[in-house]
Fold:
Amino acid sequence: MTQLVNQTVLVTGANRGIGREFVRQLLDRGVTKVYAAARDPRTILADDPRLIPLQLDVTDAGSVARAAEIAQDVSVVVNNAGIARVGSVLDSDTSNLRSELETNLFGPLAVTSAFADRLAQRSGVVINIASVASWLPFGGTYGVSKAAVWSATDSMRLELGPRGVQVVGVHVGYVDTDMTAGTDAAKSNPADVVRQVLDGVEKGDVEILADDLTRAVRASLHQPIETRLAPFLP
Structure:
């Protein structure tokens, strides 16, 4: 159980969507500092003295190492940066899948690894943004990358939990951000998603299911994939 007041937080992908909302709500909850990380930190609106724009490309080992050197006081990491290329898992051209895995899986692993010792020293928190696509094959290659994040989060918890680190997996369906602008489907409000995540962190939760769809799918994992998919097929 972690109180967020007075914590120092790193948020990846902080320049838009859910990441930007994390920054806003964390500041509202009284954190000491937020490192708002993005590939181009000029896209971060630094309108609060506690907000520090930080250059970070989670797919670049050198960039991760430099960010870890700068942000040495971090106690909470929000692995939010993600991409959706969407492609067939049987496509002979694997560039979409490889790109998604580099950002969605290897990115959080690299960032968490870089900060793990400091988080353990501070009884810190890791928050990984996964998806309902961890359990439903939405988006083909995208779903593969998010299923990998789910598994990686469980492995992180087994390694970091005994060291006093709370590792939180977040699963949600469509969220109303620019990434889903072309999708005609029911979408969650990013403010509501982030509120559930931060409330869950403070209660000590390790898995947060942020909408009704995700909760229903999580409860049906014992069923064959065809059964789980049936409500979404024409």
In short: The mean pLDDT is 93.
